[in-house]
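Quick one: structure for this chain?
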Amino acid sequence: MSNPWTLGVVGAGVMAEVMIDGILDQGLLQPQDIIASDHNPTRLAHVAARHAIRTATDNRKTAQAADVLLLAVKPQNLAEVLQELRGRIPASATVLSIVAGASMRALRTGLAHEHVVRCMPNLPCRVRRGMTVWTARGDRADHERTRTLLGVMGQELYVEHEAQVDQATAVNGTGPAIVAEFVKAMVEAAAYIGEPREVAHETVLATLIGTAEMIRSAGRDGTHVAELIDAVTSPGGTTSRALQVMKQGRFSAVVTEAIDAAHSRTLELGQRLEADLARGVQDG
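Got it. Here's what it folds into:
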């Protein structure tokens, strides 16, 4: 990436700030190279004070100044923002969208702009351990710049098919909340049998992190996660008893239904956005 260039940020929420923080921390840009806008003046004041970046109250000013424009607004506000920015983005600029459900077709049509990258980061990006799944069409320079930007938040994974970004929204986007709910349930269960809550908190997290690393390591050797479960499950033992209760409670089915519901909601958000854009075109 050649300097100088400018990052524009429309919607200065948590995920946008995570990216700003990583970019500045790794020295990819200087504060004066970043301009952010948000309709919430309190939020805008916060990012300006914390990161010393430039700010604007007009999204159009941010778009016009950007070589790379990050769209980080709420899905229900996106149609209005797209109409606001339509025709205002420099032709050479790349747009990165992290808006759930917003298809590349909707983004390109709404913005009247071709260079669009669709991304789905997740909450662990806040601690630089995130996973961002993304897709794009265009030249390789766009891809390399995107990899560098997304890499400040953790891992990034390019996928060929846009449907995989919708799936990732349900899996890695929603996944941290599902995992956190499981951790909460484990801690509560430990407290139920009498383990001190502070001990439970540490042991549950250590077990989760250690097991995830073990599964990842084994997967590199072609070992399926089911084999690891079998290895720790003795007939008539404690693990066998626990797993039987989980099966009776439809644990796997509930997780599947939760992911499926998140995926369906992602598609609904995309359909609603396209309908809003169509109405906007008709009204215009």
